[in-house]
Design goal:
The protein is α/β, with parallel strands linked by helices and 479 residues long. It has 13 helices and 19 strands. Bound molecules: iron/sulfur cluster. Iron/sulfur cluster binds next to helix 6.
Length: 479
Protein backbone atom coordinates (compact mmCIF):
# COMPACT_ATOMS: atom_id res chain seq x y z
CA UNK A 1 0.00 0.00 0.00
CA UNK A 2 1.38 3.41 -0.89
CA UNK A 3 -0.10 5.83 1.58
CA UNK A 4 2.72 8.39 1.54
CA UNK A 5 2.59 9.19 -2.12
CA UNK A 6 2.54 12.86 -3.08
CA UNK A 7 -0.70 13.37 -4.92
CA UNK A 8 -0.44 15.34 -8.06
CA UNK A 9 -2.68 13.64 -10.53
CA UNK A 10 -2.91 15.40 -13.86
CA UNK A 11 -3.30 14.61 -17.51
CA UNK A 12 0.16 12.96 -17.47
CA UNK A 13 -1.33 10.14 -15.41
CA UNK A 14 -4.04 9.67 -18.00
CA UNK A 15 -1.43 9.70 -20.78
CA UNK A 16 0.77 7.20 -18.94
CA UNK A 17 -2.15 4.85 -18.60
CA UNK A 18 -2.96 5.26 -22.30
CA UNK A 19 0.45 3.75 -22.90
CA UNK A 20 -0.39 0.74 -20.67
CA UNK A 21 -3.77 0.39 -22.39
CA UNK A 22 -2.09 0.10 -25.82
CA UNK A 23 0.44 -2.31 -24.42
CA UNK A 24 -2.17 -4.66 -22.98
CA UNK A 25 -4.28 -4.34 -26.10
CA UNK A 26 -1.34 -5.64 -28.11
CA UNK A 27 -0.97 -8.63 -25.76
CA UNK A 28 -4.71 -9.40 -26.01
CA UNK A 29 -4.78 -8.95 -29.81
CA UNK A 30 -1.83 -11.38 -30.12
CA UNK A 31 -3.74 -13.86 -27.96
CA UNK A 32 -6.75 -13.50 -30.27
CA UNK A 33 -4.58 -14.01 -33.40
CA UNK A 34 -3.10 -17.18 -31.91
CA UNK A 35 -6.14 -18.74 -30.25
CA UNK A 36 -9.08 -17.19 -32.11
CA UNK A 37 -10.77 -16.14 -28.87
CA UNK A 38 -10.91 -12.80 -27.11
CA UNK A 39 -9.95 -12.24 -23.49
CA UNK A 40 -13.09 -11.59 -21.43
CA UNK A 41 -14.02 -9.58 -18.36
CA UNK A 42 -16.86 -9.37 -15.87
CA UNK A 43 -17.42 -6.44 -13.45
CA UNK A 44 -19.56 -6.80 -10.34
CA UNK A 45 -20.50 -3.46 -8.73
CA UNK A 46 -21.79 -3.00 -5.20
CA UNK A 47 -23.27 0.11 -3.63
CA UNK A 48 -23.98 3.58 -4.87
CA UNK A 49 -23.96 5.52 -8.13
CA UNK A 50 -20.41 6.72 -7.42
CA UNK A 51 -19.28 3.12 -7.62
CA UNK A 52 -21.38 2.54 -10.73
CA UNK A 53 -19.57 5.43 -12.39
CA UNK A 54 -16.14 4.11 -11.35
CA UNK A 55 -17.15 0.77 -12.89
CA UNK A 56 -18.14 2.56 -16.09
CA UNK A 57 -14.60 3.96 -16.27
CA UNK A 58 -13.06 0.53 -15.64
CA UNK A 59 -15.28 -1.07 -18.30
CA UNK A 60 -14.22 1.55 -20.87
CA UNK A 61 -10.55 0.93 -20.04
CA UNK A 62 -10.98 -2.86 -20.25
CA UNK A 63 -12.66 -2.59 -23.65
CA UNK A 64 -9.87 -0.33 -24.87
CA UNK A 65 -7.42 -2.99 -23.66
CA UNK A 66 -9.11 -5.52 -25.95
CA UNK A 67 -11.19 -7.34 -23.36
CA UNK A 68 -14.76 -8.33 -24.17
CA UNK A 69 -17.63 -8.21 -21.62
CA UNK A 70 -19.31 -11.49 -20.56
CA UNK A 71 -22.47 -11.99 -18.51
CA UNK A 72 -21.21 -14.85 -16.35
CA UNK A 73 -18.14 -14.39 -14.18
CA UNK A 74 -17.22 -18.06 -14.75
CA UNK A 75 -16.49 -17.24 -18.42
CA UNK A 76 -14.24 -14.29 -17.63
CA UNK A 77 -10.43 -14.03 -17.72
CA UNK A 78 -10.54 -10.94 -15.53
CA UNK A 79 -13.11 -10.37 -12.77
CA UNK A 80 -13.54 -7.07 -10.94
CA UNK A 81 -15.36 -6.70 -7.62
CA UNK A 82 -15.97 -2.97 -7.19
CA UNK A 83 -16.91 -2.92 -3.53
CA UNK A 84 -18.95 -0.79 -1.13
CA UNK A 85 -18.14 -0.22 2.53
CA UNK A 86 -21.32 1.50 3.60
CA UNK A 87 -23.26 -1.61 4.67
CA UNK A 88 -22.02 -4.76 6.30
CA UNK A 89 -24.18 -6.94 4.05
CA UNK A 90 -22.42 -5.85 0.88
CA UNK A 91 -19.09 -6.50 2.56
CA UNK A 92 -20.08 -10.06 3.51
CA UNK A 93 -21.30 -10.70 -0.03
CA UNK A 94 -17.91 -9.64 -1.44
CA UNK A 95 -16.04 -12.08 0.78
CA UNK A 96 -18.58 -14.83 -0.04
CA UNK A 97 -18.15 -14.24 -3.77
CA UNK A 98 -14.37 -14.14 -3.46
CA UNK A 99 -14.64 -17.65 -1.99
CA UNK A 100 -16.40 -18.86 -5.18
CA UNK A 101 -13.79 -17.20 -7.35
CA UNK A 102 -11.03 -18.96 -5.42
CA UNK A 103 -12.43 -22.31 -6.68
CA UNK A 104 -12.51 -20.97 -10.23
CA UNK A 105 -8.93 -19.73 -9.98
CA UNK A 106 -7.78 -23.27 -9.18
CA UNK A 107 -8.94 -24.48 -12.61
CA UNK A 108 -8.21 -21.25 -14.49
CA UNK A 109 -4.65 -20.34 -13.59
CA UNK A 110 -4.46 -17.14 -15.68
CA UNK A 111 -7.62 -15.65 -14.25
CA UNK A 112 -7.00 -12.11 -12.92
CA UNK A 113 -9.03 -11.25 -9.83
CA UNK A 114 -9.41 -7.55 -9.01
CA UNK A 115 -10.94 -6.01 -5.89
CA UNK A 116 -11.47 -2.24 -5.86
CA UNK A 117 -13.69 0.43 -4.33
CA UNK A 118 -14.57 1.74 -0.89
CA UNK A 119 -13.87 -1.43 1.09
CA UNK A 120 -10.24 -1.23 0.00
CA UNK A 121 -9.82 2.16 1.64
CA UNK A 122 -10.00 0.38 5.01
CA UNK A 123 -6.60 -0.96 6.11
CA UNK A 124 -8.09 -3.92 8.03
CA UNK A 125 -9.83 -5.14 4.85
CA UNK A 126 -6.66 -4.89 2.76
CA UNK A 127 -4.81 -6.78 5.52
CA UNK A 128 -7.45 -9.51 5.46
CA UNK A 129 -7.14 -9.84 1.67
CA UNK A 130 -3.34 -10.00 1.89
CA UNK A 131 -3.50 -12.70 4.53
CA UNK A 132 -6.53 -14.80 3.60
CA UNK A 133 -7.22 -14.09 -0.07
CA UNK A 134 -3.77 -14.42 -1.56
CA UNK A 135 -5.26 -15.44 -4.91
CA UNK A 136 -6.52 -11.86 -5.42
CA UNK A 137 -4.20 -10.27 -7.99
CA UNK A 138 -5.02 -6.58 -7.81
CA UNK A 139 -6.29 -4.44 -4.96
CA UNK A 140 -6.87 -0.73 -5.47
CA UNK A 141 -8.82 2.04 -3.79
CA UNK A 142 -11.25 4.74 -4.82
CA UNK A 143 -8.46 7.26 -5.57
CA UNK A 144 -6.56 4.89 -7.88
CA UNK A 145 -9.09 4.04 -10.61
CA UNK A 146 -7.05 5.92 -13.24
CA UNK A 147 -4.13 3.54 -12.62
CA UNK A 148 -6.13 0.38 -13.38
CA UNK A 149 -4.26 -0.36 -16.69
CA UNK A 150 -0.87 0.09 -14.99
CA UNK A 151 -1.85 -2.38 -12.27
CA UNK A 152 -3.02 -4.98 -14.81
CA UNK A 153 0.24 -4.61 -16.73
CA UNK A 154 2.14 -5.09 -13.48
CA UNK A 155 0.35 -8.38 -12.78
CA UNK A 156 0.79 -9.63 -16.34
CA UNK A 157 4.52 -8.92 -16.07
CA UNK A 158 5.32 -10.01 -12.53
CA UNK A 159 2.54 -12.48 -11.63
CA UNK A 160 2.46 -11.05 -8.10
CA UNK A 161 -0.32 -9.48 -6.06
CA UNK A 162 -0.32 -5.67 -6.47
CA UNK A 163 -1.90 -3.31 -3.99
CA UNK A 164 -2.32 0.41 -4.56
CA UNK A 165 -4.49 2.28 -2.10
CA UNK A 166 -3.89 5.99 -1.62
CA UNK A 167 -5.42 7.17 1.58
CA UNK A 168 -6.18 10.68 0.45
CA UNK A 169 -7.76 12.16 -2.60
CA UNK A 170 -5.97 13.92 -5.44
CA UNK A 171 -7.34 16.42 -7.92
CA UNK A 172 -10.40 15.27 -9.81
CA UNK A 173 -9.23 13.46 -12.91
CA UNK A 174 -11.14 14.52 -15.97
CA UNK A 175 -10.70 12.95 -19.36
CA UNK A 176 -10.89 9.27 -18.41
CA UNK A 177 -13.09 7.47 -20.90
CA UNK A 178 -16.12 5.69 -19.50
CA UNK A 179 -18.65 3.24 -20.82
CA UNK A 180 -22.14 4.32 -19.96
CA UNK A 181 -25.32 2.36 -20.66
CA UNK A 182 -27.14 5.06 -22.54
CA UNK A 183 -30.84 5.42 -22.11
CA UNK A 184 -33.23 8.23 -21.42
CA UNK A 185 -31.79 8.90 -18.00
CA UNK A 186 -28.22 9.43 -16.87
CA UNK A 187 -26.42 10.12 -13.61
CA UNK A 188 -23.67 12.73 -13.57
CA UNK A 189 -21.24 13.12 -10.66
CA UNK A 190 -20.74 16.76 -9.81
CA UNK A 191 -18.53 16.25 -6.78
CA UNK A 192 -16.70 13.60 -4.82
CA UNK A 193 -16.06 12.92 -1.15
CA UNK A 194 -17.65 14.44 1.91
CA UNK A 195 -16.62 16.78 4.74
CA UNK A 196 -19.46 16.06 7.11
CA UNK A 197 -18.16 13.13 9.17
CA UNK A 198 -21.50 11.78 10.34
CA UNK A 199 -20.32 9.39 13.03
CA UNK A 200 -21.87 6.26 11.47
CA UNK A 201 -20.56 6.86 7.95
CA UNK A 202 -17.41 5.55 6.32
CA UNK A 203 -17.64 7.75 3.20
CA UNK A 204 -15.32 10.61 4.32
CA UNK A 205 -12.65 7.97 5.01
CA UNK A 206 -13.17 5.96 1.81
CA UNK A 207 -13.99 8.75 -0.67
CA UNK A 208 -11.93 11.53 0.91
CA UNK A 209 -12.66 15.23 1.36
CA UNK A 210 -15.17 17.09 -0.73
CA UNK A 211 -14.06 18.14 -4.25
CA UNK A 212 -16.36 19.77 -6.81
CA UNK A 213 -15.93 19.24 -10.54
CA UNK A 214 -15.49 22.38 -12.62
CA UNK A 215 -18.83 23.49 -14.05
CA UNK A 216 -17.41 23.51 -17.62
CA UNK A 217 -16.63 19.78 -17.39
CA UNK A 218 -20.08 18.99 -16.03
CA UNK A 219 -21.93 21.07 -18.62
CA UNK A 220 -19.86 19.62 -21.44
CA UNK A 221 -20.65 16.07 -20.27
CA UNK A 222 -24.38 16.82 -20.06
CA UNK A 223 -24.44 18.47 -23.51
CA UNK A 224 -22.92 15.31 -24.95
CA UNK A 225 -25.48 13.16 -23.11
CA UNK A 226 -28.31 15.32 -24.45
CA UNK A 227 -26.92 14.93 -27.99
CA UNK A 228 -26.92 11.15 -27.41
CA UNK A 229 -30.63 11.17 -26.54
CA UNK A 230 -30.57 11.45 -22.73
CA UNK A 231 -33.60 13.40 -21.50
CA UNK A 232 -33.31 13.25 -17.71
CA UNK A 233 -30.21 14.03 -15.70
CA UNK A 234 -29.62 13.25 -12.03
CA UNK A 235 -26.78 15.29 -10.54
CA UNK A 236 -24.96 13.25 -7.92
CA UNK A 237 -22.84 13.97 -4.90
CA UNK A 238 -22.72 12.95 -1.24
CA UNK A 239 -23.92 16.46 -0.45
CA UNK A 240 -24.81 18.34 -3.63
CA UNK A 241 -25.85 21.40 -1.62
CA UNK A 242 -22.25 22.22 -0.83
CA UNK A 243 -21.19 22.06 -4.49
CA UNK A 244 -18.73 24.81 -5.38
CA UNK A 245 -17.79 25.77 -1.83
CA UNK A 246 -14.10 25.54 -2.66
CA UNK A 247 -14.25 27.58 -5.87
CA UNK A 248 -12.44 30.93 -5.97
CA UNK A 249 -15.19 32.52 -8.06
CA UNK A 250 -18.57 32.12 -6.33
CA UNK A 251 -20.68 29.49 -8.08
CA UNK A 252 -23.01 27.18 -6.19
CA UNK A 253 -25.37 24.27 -6.73
CA UNK A 254 -28.36 26.49 -7.50
CA UNK A 255 -26.27 28.23 -10.20
CA UNK A 256 -25.31 24.85 -11.64
CA UNK A 257 -28.95 23.69 -11.77
CA UNK A 258 -29.83 26.89 -13.65
CA UNK A 259 -27.02 26.36 -16.19
CA UNK A 260 -27.89 22.67 -16.71
CA UNK A 261 -31.51 23.64 -17.37
CA UNK A 262 -30.35 25.79 -20.33
CA UNK A 263 -29.04 22.73 -22.20
CA UNK A 264 -31.26 21.84 -25.16
CA UNK A 265 -32.68 18.34 -25.12
CA UNK A 266 -32.61 17.94 -21.33
CA UNK A 267 -36.21 17.85 -20.16
CA UNK A 268 -35.82 17.04 -16.49
CA UNK A 269 -33.21 17.52 -13.80
CA UNK A 270 -33.03 15.67 -10.49
CA UNK A 271 -30.34 15.62 -7.83
CA UNK A 272 -29.22 13.74 -4.77
CA UNK A 273 -28.25 13.73 -1.95
CA UNK A 274 -29.03 16.93 -0.03
CA UNK A 275 -27.70 17.52 3.45
CA UNK A 276 -30.33 19.50 5.39
CA UNK A 277 -27.79 21.89 6.91
CA UNK A 278 -26.75 23.17 3.46
CA UNK A 279 -30.09 23.49 1.68
CA UNK A 280 -30.28 27.18 0.76
CA UNK A 281 -33.22 29.49 0.04
CA UNK A 282 -31.69 30.12 -3.39
CA UNK A 283 -31.90 26.40 -4.13
CA UNK A 284 -35.52 26.20 -2.93
CA UNK A 285 -36.37 29.08 -5.29
CA UNK A 286 -34.71 27.34 -8.24
CA UNK A 287 -36.65 24.12 -7.58
CA UNK A 288 -39.86 26.13 -7.27
CA UNK A 289 -39.33 28.26 -10.37
CA UNK A 290 -37.26 26.32 -12.89
CA UNK A 291 -39.57 24.18 -15.02
CA UNK A 292 -36.92 21.57 -15.75
CA UNK A 293 -36.00 20.92 -12.10
CA UNK A 294 -38.29 18.22 -10.71
CA UNK A 295 -40.28 18.86 -7.54
CA UNK A 296 -38.68 15.97 -5.73
CA UNK A 297 -36.20 16.30 -2.87
CA UNK A 298 -34.44 13.48 -1.07
CA UNK A 299 -33.54 14.95 2.30
CA UNK A 300 -32.14 12.45 4.80
CA UNK A 301 -33.23 13.11 8.40
CA UNK A 302 -31.87 9.81 9.84
CA UNK A 303 -33.75 10.12 13.16
CA UNK A 304 -36.35 12.30 14.83
CA UNK A 305 -34.47 12.52 18.12
CA UNK A 306 -32.22 15.53 18.76
CA UNK A 307 -29.97 13.62 21.13
CA UNK A 308 -29.42 10.87 18.53
CA UNK A 309 -28.87 13.50 15.81
CA UNK A 310 -26.17 15.01 18.02
CA UNK A 311 -24.46 11.65 18.49
CA UNK A 312 -24.68 11.12 14.74
CA UNK A 313 -22.98 14.53 14.25
CA UNK A 314 -25.64 15.56 11.76
CA UNK A 315 -25.28 19.26 12.66
CA UNK A 316 -29.02 20.07 12.67
CA UNK A 317 -31.93 19.53 15.02
CA UNK A 318 -35.35 18.16 14.13
CA UNK A 319 -36.63 21.74 14.51
CA UNK A 320 -34.10 22.96 11.88
CA UNK A 321 -35.23 20.11 9.62
CA UNK A 322 -38.92 20.98 10.07
CA UNK A 323 -38.17 24.59 9.24
CA UNK A 324 -36.58 23.58 5.91
CA UNK A 325 -39.44 21.19 5.11
CA UNK A 326 -41.99 23.93 5.79
CA UNK A 327 -40.11 26.34 3.52
CA UNK A 328 -39.96 23.70 0.78
CA UNK A 329 -43.67 22.89 1.11
CA UNK A 330 -44.63 26.59 1.12
CA UNK A 331 -42.70 27.37 -2.03
CA UNK A 332 -43.33 24.08 -3.87
CA UNK A 333 -46.95 22.99 -3.36
CA UNK A 334 -46.59 19.68 -5.26
CA UNK A 335 -43.28 18.75 -3.56
CA UNK A 336 -42.47 15.08 -3.03
CA UNK A 337 -40.16 14.42 -0.14
CA UNK A 338 -38.23 11.27 0.64
CA UNK A 339 -35.76 10.57 3.40
CA UNK A 340 -33.29 8.11 4.93
CA UNK A 341 -33.72 6.71 8.42
CA UNK A 342 -31.35 4.78 10.65
CA UNK A 343 -33.03 2.75 13.37
CA UNK A 344 -31.27 1.43 16.47
CA UNK A 345 -28.26 3.79 16.61
CA UNK A 346 -26.18 3.28 19.79
CA UNK A 347 -27.92 4.78 22.81
CA UNK A 348 -31.29 5.16 21.03
CA UNK A 349 -34.17 4.70 23.47
CA UNK A 350 -37.80 3.72 22.91
CA UNK A 351 -38.64 7.38 23.47
CA UNK A 352 -36.17 8.39 20.71
CA UNK A 353 -37.82 5.92 18.36
CA UNK A 354 -41.25 7.36 19.26
CA UNK A 355 -39.92 10.81 18.37
CA UNK A 356 -38.85 9.47 14.97
CA UNK A 357 -42.34 8.06 14.43
CA UNK A 358 -43.96 11.36 15.47
CA UNK A 359 -41.79 13.24 13.01
CA UNK A 360 -42.62 10.82 10.17
CA UNK A 361 -46.34 11.32 10.89
CA UNK A 362 -45.97 15.07 11.00
CA UNK A 363 -44.04 15.35 7.73
CA UNK A 364 -45.79 12.50 5.89
CA UNK A 365 -42.85 11.50 3.72
CA UNK A 366 -43.64 10.10 0.29
CA UNK A 367 -40.88 7.51 0.59
CA UNK A 368 -38.30 6.54 3.20
CA UNK A 369 -35.23 4.36 2.89
CA UNK A 370 -35.07 2.78 6.33
CA UNK A 371 -32.05 0.90 7.63
CA UNK A 372 -31.19 -0.88 10.83
CA UNK A 373 -27.96 0.58 12.21
CA UNK A 374 -24.95 -1.66 11.71
CA UNK A 375 -21.51 -0.87 13.00
CA UNK A 376 -18.85 0.08 10.44
CA UNK A 377 -15.27 -0.42 11.57
CA UNK A 378 -13.27 2.79 11.26
CA UNK A 379 -16.15 5.13 12.07
CA UNK A 380 -16.49 7.04 15.38
CA UNK A 381 -19.87 5.39 16.05
CA UNK A 382 -18.19 1.97 16.07
CA UNK A 383 -16.60 3.01 19.38
CA UNK A 384 -19.86 4.16 20.97
CA UNK A 385 -21.16 2.09 23.84
CA UNK A 386 -24.82 1.28 24.42
CA UNK A 387 -25.34 -0.69 21.24
CA UNK A 388 -28.95 -1.77 20.82
CA UNK A 389 -29.72 -5.50 20.84
CA UNK A 390 -30.78 -6.81 17.44
CA UNK A 391 -34.25 -7.92 18.56
CA UNK A 392 -35.03 -4.41 19.83
CA UNK A 393 -33.62 -2.86 16.64
CA UNK A 394 -35.95 -5.09 14.61
CA UNK A 395 -38.98 -4.28 16.77
CA UNK A 396 -38.37 -0.53 16.39
CA UNK A 397 -37.65 -0.94 12.67
CA UNK A 398 -40.96 -2.78 12.12
CA UNK A 399 -42.87 -0.10 14.03
CA UNK A 400 -41.32 2.64 11.87
CA UNK A 401 -41.89 0.71 8.66
CA UNK A 402 -45.57 0.08 9.43
CA UNK A 403 -46.12 3.81 9.99
CA UNK A 404 -44.31 4.76 6.77
CA UNK A 405 -46.09 2.14 4.67
CA UNK A 406 -49.50 3.24 5.96
CA UNK A 407 -48.72 6.87 5.11
CA UNK A 408 -47.58 5.94 1.60
CA UNK A 409 -50.69 3.78 0.98
CA UNK A 410 -53.01 6.54 2.21
CA UNK A 411 -51.23 9.20 0.13
CA UNK A 412 -51.35 6.99 -2.96
CA UNK A 413 -55.10 6.37 -2.51
CA UNK A 414 -55.66 10.14 -2.57
CA UNK A 415 -53.90 10.34 -5.93
CA UNK A 416 -56.85 8.76 -7.75
CA UNK A 417 -57.87 11.08 -10.57
CA UNK A 418 -54.70 13.20 -10.39
CA UNK A 419 -52.83 13.89 -13.63
CA UNK A 420 -49.04 13.56 -13.78
CA UNK A 421 -46.50 14.31 -16.49
CA UNK A 422 -44.62 11.04 -17.06
CA UNK A 423 -41.36 10.42 -18.90
CA UNK A 424 -42.03 7.10 -20.65
CA UNK A 425 -39.08 4.80 -19.94
CA UNK A 426 -40.12 1.53 -21.58
CA UNK A 427 -42.27 -1.56 -21.21
CA UNK A 428 -43.38 -2.61 -17.74
CA UNK A 429 -42.04 -6.12 -17.19
CA UNK A 430 -45.14 -7.74 -15.86
CA UNK A 431 -47.34 -7.06 -18.86
CA UNK A 432 -46.24 -6.17 -22.36
CA UNK A 433 -49.22 -3.95 -23.07
CA UNK A 434 -48.17 -1.62 -20.23
CA UNK A 435 -45.60 1.16 -20.41
CA UNK A 436 -43.77 2.42 -17.35
CA UNK A 437 -42.33 5.77 -16.38
CA UNK A 438 -41.81 8.26 -13.58
CA UNK A 439 -43.62 11.48 -12.89
CA UNK A 440 -41.75 14.68 -12.04
CA UNK A 441 -42.55 13.85 -8.42
CA UNK A 442 -40.75 10.49 -8.86
CA UNK A 443 -43.90 8.32 -8.71
CA UNK A 444 -43.63 5.05 -10.61
CA UNK A 445 -46.62 4.92 -12.97
CA UNK A 446 -47.80 2.22 -15.41
CA UNK A 447 -50.28 2.71 -18.24
CA UNK A 448 -51.20 1.21 -21.61
CA UNK A 449 -49.56 2.65 -24.71
CA UNK A 450 -47.50 2.02 -27.81
CA UNK A 451 -43.73 1.82 -28.21
CA UNK A 452 -43.50 5.11 -30.08
CA UNK A 453 -44.21 6.90 -26.79
CA UNK A 454 -40.97 5.67 -25.21
CA UNK A 455 -38.80 8.71 -24.53
CA UNK A 456 -41.74 11.12 -24.65
CA UNK A 457 -43.46 13.11 -21.93
CA UNK A 458 -47.14 12.17 -21.61
CA UNK A 459 -49.90 13.18 -19.22
CA UNK A 460 -51.32 10.24 -17.28
CA UNK A 461 -54.48 10.25 -15.16
CA UNK A 462 -54.37 7.89 -12.18
CA UNK A 463 -57.14 5.29 -12.39
CA UNK A 464 -55.83 2.66 -9.96
CA UNK A 465 -53.65 3.70 -7.05
CA UNK A 466 -51.78 0.78 -5.57
CA UNK A 467 -49.84 0.46 -2.34
CA UNK A 468 -46.44 1.41 -3.74
CA UNK A 469 -47.09 2.41 -7.35
CA UNK A 470 -49.77 3.98 -9.48
CA UNK A 471 -51.66 2.83 -12.56
CA UNK A 472 -53.31 5.20 -14.97
CA UNK A 473 -54.31 6.05 -18.52
CA UNK A 474 -52.80 8.48 -20.97
CA UNK A 475 -54.92 11.57 -21.47
CA UNK A 476 -52.52 13.61 -23.51
CA UNK A 477 -49.77 12.49 -25.87
CA UNK A 478 -47.11 14.70 -27.47
CA UNK A 479 -48.08 16.39 -30.71
S1 LIG B 1 -23.24 13.59 4.73
FE1 LIG B 1 -22.82 12.16 6.40
S2 LIG B 1 -23.89 10.29 5.72
FE2 LIG B 1 -23.66 11.56 3.91
S3 LIG B 1 -21.74 10.89 2.97
FE3 LIG B 1 -21.23 12.62 4.29
S4 LIG B 1 -20.63 11.69 6.23
FE4 LIG B 1 -21.73 10.12 5.07
Amino acid sequence: MNSQIKLDINSDDVLENQYYISDIRKINDDYFMTHGIKMKFHVITYGCQMNEHDSEKMIAMLKNMGYEAVDAYKDADLIVFNTCAVRENAELRVFGNLGHVNHLKKTKKNLIVVVSGCMMQQPHIVKEIKEKYKFVDIVFGTHNVHNFPKLIKNVLQNQKQVIEVWDSEGHIIEGLPYERKLGLKAYVNIMFGCNNFCTYCIVPYTRGRERSREKEHILQEIKKLADDGVREITLLGQNVNSYGKTFDIPYNFADLLTDVSKIDGIKRIRFMTSHPKDLSDQLINVIAENKKVCEYVHLPIQTGSNSVLKRMNRKYTKENYMEIVNKLKDKIPNLTLSTDLIIGFPGETDADNDETIELIKEIEFDAAFTFIYSKREGTPAAKLEDSIPEDIQHLRFNKVLTVINNIIKEKNAKRLGNVYEVLVEGRANRDDSYLIGRSRENFLITFKGSDDLIGELVDVKITRPKNFSLEGEIINTPV
